[in-house]
Amino acid sequence: MDKNGKIKKRYNRIAKYFDSFQKPMGTSGFDKWRKELVQQVNGKTLEIGVGTGKNLPLYSKDIRLTAIDFSKNMLDKAMTKYKKSLSNVNFLEMDVQNMDFEDDTFDTVITSCVFCSVPDPVKGLKEIKRVLKPDGQLVMLEHVRSNGKVLGTLMDWFNFIPLIIMGANINRKTKQNLIKAGFVNIKETYLWKDIVKYFYVKNEK
Fold it and tell me: What range does the record give for the signal peptide (predicted)?
């Protein structure tokens, strides 16, 4: 089984427990940061890695939202919770690294704590750039590797633990990956130390 298949299998396995895993993140500020992030979206919007649907109740009802996840079990849980009550959401099982959408489809793409687990983050970001309209926006809430010499090294050393358990990396260099994917107009906002950040990215084509 390749890396992509292994990570998908892990998320399918933990889908039933995922909401419980996320509860501590809410008390640490992530719920507030998610709300602020979702307020930035406009137009035809794509949420990458919707998971069990944590962000879905936060969207304005006039947002045309497509929500994708590569884990069938995670997506099924989101659909069970929200498909009837949120008629503006189109749920699709899809991998950000290989999306079926045409070029220049979306005004906004949003991610929250997703690119820690995408097997090939640069490939996924290139796909986002492709499906975003010219001057469209990518808004991200992500945790990344610290630039601190000691803390960054520790994150590298212990990365194998969350990677084995959930397929998530704690040492991703997301800004560098955005640059590698071809994005130029990148704004960072620090939320907690230099580890949790917003990224606001304009798609210049």
Answer: none
β-pair partners for 141: 112, 198
Give 118-127 pLDDT, tens digit per residue.
Answer: 999 999 999 9
**Which CATH number do you get for residue 22?**
3.40.50.150
> Would you state the structure tokens that stand for residue 201, as one six-digit string?
């990215």
pLDDT at 22: 63
Q: Which residues have C-beta within 8 Å of that of residue 74, sequence separation ≥ 6?
A: 11, 12, 15, 18, 50, 51, 52
For residue 166, what are the domain limits?
Answer: 3-202
Count of domains for the chain? 1
d(CA 95, CA 108): 17
User: What is the structure's pLDDT at 166?
Assistant: 79
